[in-house]
Amino acid sequence: MKTKTTTPKDIVRKWYVVDAKGQTLGRLASKIAKILQGKHKPYYAPYLDTGDYVIVINADKIKLTGRKWEQKTYFRHSGYLGGEKIISFRKMMEKQPEFPVINAVRGMLPKNKLGRKMLKKLFVYAGEKHPHAAQKPEILDLANFK
Known about the structure:
single chain, 146 residues, CATH 3.90.1180.10, four-stranded parallel beta sheet, two-stranded antiparallel sheet, 5 helices, 27% helix
């Protein structure tokens, strides 16, 4: 008996729509990262991108637990002396409501070429509408997803 190894031609990709309304950011991001990596499929291989495409709608209606809404910050640095920029979660949600979801999912993917390839299959939108109707995405209920 031989073990079947997954090859790129064996991979079948689907499109899913996830509604982020009322979802906790970290729990939502971990489930999305699992789908992007393909860990929910029987032919998952850590060296291949076997994951599916994910469309997240209502990213502006996510929730956080505790006092993170006031205390959570995002840090970036320009590379110059004194070039640090710190922005609060509240301001980030006003300015760019898709960023917290993308950033949380990015942190849960591999930090290499493969992880960057996986992240390109994530599409996040602040409102209800998305331009991916032609792909016929399935609605994914994350409450029943393991």
